[in-house]
């Protein structure tokens, strides 16, 4: 005759309770404290109202993973309707004070009390819960001690995702009432294609999502990275999966991404000079557009440092970098990367890979750690190599930037397109005539050939990023766009297709004030006369910039206005 069992929330969320019932594990279980355990003619599952309240509360918060709890309750009810089990509900809903004390284990204590009062065997996957229950005289079935059965539904979750992938698939995009799509190709050279001609129902996507969540909970190599209202981010082995549900998204959606290739630095055909630079550089930025191949290069760079007997760690909001197993991947500590950065200083890595440097706090952490002497490799999204530096302007003091960043590696179409170096010097900016205008200038040079490409310097209250050199395209990376002939290296604009920002120019204090709309305040803009680039600068709080009459830019603006030409701006 079977005994009565009371599951806690841990075995509901990991579905162990269903696994045990279906496989008959519970029928064979022999409790230790037989004198107080109730026997029944059929398998009886006791559900605590405390456990049901936890499932209900979390499901009402619209968290994706908590649908698993509801699904398990439905399956238990279905098993009861099939006369395979009896279900009884005991206890009372927790009170407000008990809910507030839950971080200290108050709700777990109430579940143990229900198990004791009902003379049931407590089933738990929580080691603390198991230990305390044994001390309190409650017989316990601790699931870690039970051999696991390979659940076909769990395996199906991974197979369902793999069914949409082939050897050329970079990512899969499933969306309710739409055809399943896949990006196929290589980084920087891919196309979006239909997987099949069958529209997916939201319920179908929801079922796939729930199976993925169950797999992540039971696979030691997988984890749920984020679980917010309507959004769940999961690392399922090598797959990074984002599940979106209403109200965050207007329909159910799943995006699954997997690393397509693993390369070494030798595959990038770098020169010996670049190898030597990577060996000594400690402030590296890896920049490129989304999907350009930055993560693949980072994996190769991590392997390079490991072969050099360096200790490497990563700092990631979502731990999805494909790095060797010797590399520890750290997530935000208590929701903050600042806490993780403090821990990194204690473990003393030789190099830390900082993935996705985006927010103001990320740039601050990057700068603080670099100035503390930690070797850093930062990953940033940028359409041009120089844009990676521009994102540090105003977030890090101008004079400190060369101490934070010494090397920029720009990835395009899966290849290393540019390697730039930064150096601080005191000189007269290019184009200035008066020696009295000498100031600290950050020089950005092509590392391979030492060509000066850009200068960054303070000019009044503004920071100027001036293109001063003509890049010599000696690499073999295919160019998707034809470059303009002027020396600034900015792409020529097509006035018929690009959205240009209209400006007004006024005389002020023997100089010119260029005024844009207030919506462009504090934004970095490029200024043009027809197809010719004049300069680039950051607007002030009023969407304006003042050009003094002793600036070389002043004469260019004056000549343009005298010829009746308009000065326009662009964010590109």
From TrEMBL:
InterPro entries: Nucleic_acid_metab_PIN/TRAM, P-loop_NTPase, PIN-like_dom_sf
Name of the protein in question: ATPase
Organism of derivation: Promethearchaeum syntrophicum
